[in-house]
Amino acid sequence: MIDAKDIGSRIRTLRLDKDMSQGELASQLGIRTAHLSHIETGNTVPSLRIFIDLINILGCSADELLCIEIKKSRPLFLRWLDDLLADCNSQELKIISETIRTLKVSLREFGFSYRWDR
User: Fold this and answer.
1) Burial class of residue 19, CB neighbours in 10 A (0-12, 13-18, 19+)
2) Distance (Å, rounded) from C-alpha 95 to C-alpha 108?
3) What 3-state class would DSSP assign to 105?
4) pLDDT tens by residue, 75-118
5) pLDDT tens-digit profile of 38-86?
6) How much of the chain exceeds pLDDT 70, in percent?
7) Residue closest to 40 by CA, chosen among 80, 5, 90
8) Residue among 7, 29, 1 nearest 80 (CA)
9) Nearest to 6 by CA among 50, 39, 52
10) What are the phi and psi torsion angles at 35 (to 5°)?
11) Is the pTM of this model over 0.70?
12) Exposed e or buried b for every residue in 80-99, given b needs 16+ CB within 10 A?
């Protein structure tokens, strides 16, 4: 299942990496800024035309936006994770790190695997 919020977040990250405002990107897409805002928050799924235009304007691939192939989208995912943790204080980072470490051990212990292309 495709998560519109995740796609929107990746669109926002790529836009910010290009130092573009929502207004600038919306203008290049031929849509209103409010519509782009709804796409970036996951409240609206972009049409195929807008999706293709986003790929061309942002200089990315479809799998980067959809996170279909983890190999190609890993750098984008790591940037997203870095952005997610950027405003955490040291205590929060310690708790999150320990939680991730524990989760990783549990996933490997129980042989859990997740296919990113579902």
Assistant:
1) exposed
2) 20
3) helix
4) 777 887 888 899 999 999 999 999 999 998 888 888 765 544 43
5) 999 999 999 999 999 999 999 988 877 887 555 556 777 788 788 889 9
6) 86
7) 5
8) 7
9) 39
10) -65, -45
11) no
12) beeeeeeeeeeeeeeeeeee
